[in-house]
Design brief:
Blueprint: H1 14-26, H2 55-64, E1 73-75, E2 81-87, H3 92-107, E3 112-118, H4 137-148, H5 153-162, H6 169-178, H7 183-190, H8 193-208, E4 217-220, E5 223-225, H9 230-248, H10 255-264, E6 270-272, E7 278-280, E8 301-303, E9 309-315, H11 320-335, E10 340-346, H12 355-367, H13 371-387, H14 401-410, H15 415-424, H16 428-440, E11 448-451, E12 454-457, H17 462-481, H18 489-494, E13 543-544, E14 551-557, H19 562-578, E15 582-588, H20 596-606, H21 611-620, H22 622-629, H23 633-644, H24 652-660, H25 662-678, E16 682-683, E17 685-688, E18 691-694, H26 699-710, E19 732-733
Parallel strand pairs: 2-3, 9-10, 14-15
Antiparallel strand pairs: 1-3, 2-4, 4-5, 6-7, 8-10, 9-11, 11-12, 13-15, 14-17, 16-19, 17-18
């Protein structure tokens, strides 16, 4: 789940914003001590909204393409310790904590900086018999960040917190007047796109780090300080982190390297109790049985007027999986004209730079009574765009402004009114309200659905949708039999539903004491045998393992997806554990368009028997490859040339010729078509003897599934040797929805396909590994590329 913050480059991933802040404050090029001072942003001084970047590193960062975050800062301009505060302006406890924070900054001013991230936090409880209070956290966040554009962020915050978080929209305007803002500039900035994106980025970042409890929460070089611990522990943690960082700097290594090692690569979200014992705070797991009460509001609706089943669609016009599922939903509505209602909710994803305007355009068409016509036209254009075998780089994108206007004209809209709506962003508020609603229910990927209060996601087939709808209708009809009026069915079903995401309890433990280890997470069952696909392994497909293996895993991946990188270590663990019983085949599924060129290169390298070498280099150097491929096609090819040049025996001239040749292009198009045919919803998509699993889930999960397919009763990959147990899976694109619980029968392996002659299968061990796999430290967020990185949160894992 990740949104852009940087000013100059539009959308950036929220996690990378924090990475940029941490890298900026951690990495210096000078190996010797230097005179340090508070500089701009010291306590009590005016500060810029731009995060402090050490002067010695500024040029280095710009050359490296790292984003310089826009999080407001105060304290040292050249710090050794970063305090990242997750808070909002209507939070009374945040106002109370400000005094403690300022005391800490005054005490360690030469070494510490505070960065402020706006997040929603927990809603205040409503008083008995009264409606829930109006939330103004987002409005206040936008106002304060507009003030930050005039270097008045902290004075604005002081005004808001002086009210103990009790202010009205009119008060925000008065705060701006009191601190001497240019009111015209302030008003125009409040709802500007970069301010909206920055607020959304903060919320996405908090979700990514699993921060959802009472505010404020402080992240201090990776150590977490909770709201109740601020007064007692914040200064102590800062002092400890500062001591550790200074100790690390005594090592005979470059200052930049040591600070990056000390700050950037440490395990995030780890709090230390009073005795100094670390306690890991893994990301919370959502309750799969939660019932949600989603408000319909003024959202566009389609289908039955008095439905028995209400299906909410959280979607993004730039998401390829959303475009494909839209056609399925049209058939679904036709199948249940009297019983099913579809409710549209906007969910603009980070990294989708064209989606916001497209959603505003659809809502603007809705103002003229043609929302669904625009909806259908945009998704039809996107399907044609994404499914085209070869895309002309010069071809206009269907969601560009001229194409949106052309679509509006074809639909017979009043063009003047339509253009005015886009120019003034009159529908941006409605779009943003839906996005905020999605975040409240932990909906970070598309397409995501909520059917009569039950959430699921993925590019389902029509039959899969029908199965879920039939189950919902059966429940609703029982309610009709009890006398509930048809028009009230939805409200009665969800009347006790949660109004925000429900998470399973986290492991408890006293502060300072080692917590009880969490029980290993159990995998969902494999899809039933009836859903198994005959997934082919083509003659050109790179393969590890023997053709006669009892289990074949076909992996659909691409080289720019970070979860495809994560799955590589899992595949190694599985190969070692299952030996010659497992065959792994690699096919290509392009979720991010810029991943096309690396896939062509990998297929071309396979023709010289060098797939494994280039495949490994691509994932080992993924950040550099992302940066290049998201810059230009030429930069992407140059990076591929550089990496391929490291491989002994690889003919670069032949590689380039094959990449541009018809045969390799045909192979890639066949892989992409197969991914669509088999229902690969995102990357990585893995088929175990034809049964689909999406995402970089833990190796022990795959181990259990493979054990079942082999008919084994013993555990081959226990959780104790699984480095991912306690962490999350993930994927790029839409995940496969969770299947209904049912026993998993053993199935026979699919018909073996020929082993490609160009590849030698690496040696594997038939026995289980003798020693447990070491659990690596979870890295801090990696530096970001110059251009917008791929939208990792196209997926709610």
């Amino acid at each position: 789940m990740r949104v852009g913050i940087g000013k100059g480059n539009g959308r950036r991933l929220g996690v990378l914003v924090l990475a940029a802040i941490v890298v900026a404050i951690a990495c210096r090029s000078d190996p010797t001590p230097r005179t340090r001072g508070r500089g701009e942003g010291a306590v009590g001084e005016p500060v810029s909204a731009t995060a402090g970047v050490p002067t010695a590193c500024t040029d280095e960062f710009r050359k490296g393409g790292l984003p310089i975050g826009d999080a407001p800062r105060k304290g040292s301009a050249d710090p050794l310790v970063a305090i990242v505060e997750f808070a909002n302006l209507e939070c009374p406890d945040c106002a109370k904590a400000a005094r403690t924070v300022d005391e800490v900054l005054a005490r360690f001013g030469e070494d510490v900086a505070l960065y402020f991230i706006h997040v929603e936090g927990q809603a205040p409880a409503a008083k008995p018999g009264q409606p829930a209070p109006q939330r103004l956290w987002r409005q206040a966040a936008q106002a304060s960040l507009a003030a930050a554009r005039q270097d008045k962020f902290w004075p604005f915050v002081e005004q808001a917190w002086a009210t103990n978080g009790k202010f009205s929209p009119q008060d925000l305007e008065q705060f701006a007047q009191r601190i001497g803002l240019d009111l015209n500039a302030y008003r125009s900035q409040q709802n500007s796109r970069d301010v909206l994106q920055q607020v959304e980025a903060g919320q996405a970042l908090a979700t990514e780090l699993g921060i959802s409890g009472p505010l404020p929460v402080f992240w201090v070089n990776g150590a977490l300080v909770q709201a109740a611990e601020v007064e007692a522990r914040l200064g102590q943690v800062v002092e400890q982190e500062l001591a550790e960082t200074r100790q690390a700097l005594l090592a005979p290594r470059a200052r930049c390297e040591m600070l990056a090692r000390q700050v950037v690569t440490r395990r995030p979200a780890v709090g230390r109790g009073a005795a100094g014992v670390g306690r890991s705070l893994g990301a919370p797991q959502e309750d799969p049985n939660a019932l949600y009460r989603i408000p319909i509001g003024d959202s566009p609706k389609l289908g039955a007027a008095e439905p028995l089943a209400t299906l909410f669609l959280f979607t993004d016009f730039q998401c390829p999986h959303c475009a494909r599922v839209a056609a399925t939903l049209d058939e679904l509505i036709k199948a249940y004209p009297n019983d099913l209602r579809l409710v549209f909710k906007n969910n603009v994803l980070p990294g989708h730079d064209k989606a916001q305007l497209a959603h505003e355009a659809a809502m603007a068409a809705g103002q003229q009574g043609k929302f669904w016509e625009m909806h259908d036209a945009l998704f039809a254009a996107m399907r044609e765009y994404y499914d085209s075998p070869s895309r002309d780089p010069a071809r206009p994108h269907p969601l560009d402004r001229p194409q949106l206007e052309a679509t509006a004209q074809r639909l017979g809209l009043d063009l003047d009114a339509f253009r005015k709506a886009l120019d003034s962003h009159t529908t941006a508020g409605a779009v943003q309200a839906d996005v905020e609603l999605a975040r409240r229910f932990a909906i970070s990927g598309t397409p995501t659905f909520v059917l009569n209060g039950r959430k699921f996601s993925g590019n389902l087939t029509l039959e899969q949708f029908k199965g879920r709808v039939e189950a919902a209708l059966a429940e609703a009809r029982k309610m009709l039999e009890t006398g509930v009026p048809r028009a009230q069915v939805y409200e009665r079903i969800v009347e006790r539903g949660a109004e925000r995401a429900v998470f399973l309890p986290m492991p408890a433990g006293e502060a300072g004491a080692p917590p009880q280890p969490a029980a290993p997470r159990e995998p969902p069952p494999l899809p039933p045998a009836s859903e198994a696909k005959d997934v082919k392994v083509e003659p050109w497909t790179p393969v590890r393992g023997p053709a006669g293996a009892k289990v074949t895993m076909v992996v659909f991946c691409e080289y720019l997806c970070p979860f495809c990188k994560r799955i590589q270590e899992t595949l190694k663990i599985l190969q070692q554990a299952f030996g010659n019983d497992l065959r792994i085949a690699f096919r290509h599924h392009i979720v991010h368009e810029q991943a096309t060129v690396p896939s062509l290169a990998a297929l071309a390298a396979a023709r010289q028997g060098k797939f494994e070498e280039l495949h490994g280099l691509f994932f080992e150097n993924q950040p550099d490859l992302q940066r290049a491929c998201y810059e230009t096609a030429e930069a992407c090819r140059a990076k591929i040339d550089e990496l391929a040049g490291r491989i002994a025996g690889l003919d670069l001239n032949r590689l380039r010729a094959d990449m541009d040749g018809a045969e390799v292009r045909r192979q890639l198009d066949a892989d992409k078509a197969a991914a669509r045919e088999y229902g690969a919803g995102g990357t990585p998509s893995l088929f175990l003897n034809g049964r689909l699993q999406v995402g970089a889930v833990p190796p022990s999960w795959f181990g259990k599934w493979i054990d079942e397919l082999l008919g084994r009763t013993t555990v081959t990959v226990p959780a104790s040797m699984d480095p991912q147990q306690g962490g999350g899976g993930g994927g790029c694109g839409a995940p496969r929805p969770a299947p209904a619980p049912q026993p998993v029968p053993v199935v026979e392996a699919p018909r073996p396909a020929p082993q490609p002659s160009a590849l030698q299968a690496p040696a594997v061990q038939a026995a289980r590994p003798a020693a447990a796999v070491a659990r690596p430290p979870r890295p801090r967020p990696a530096p970001a590329p110059a251009a917008p990185p791929p939208p990792e949160n196209d997926n709610p894992y």
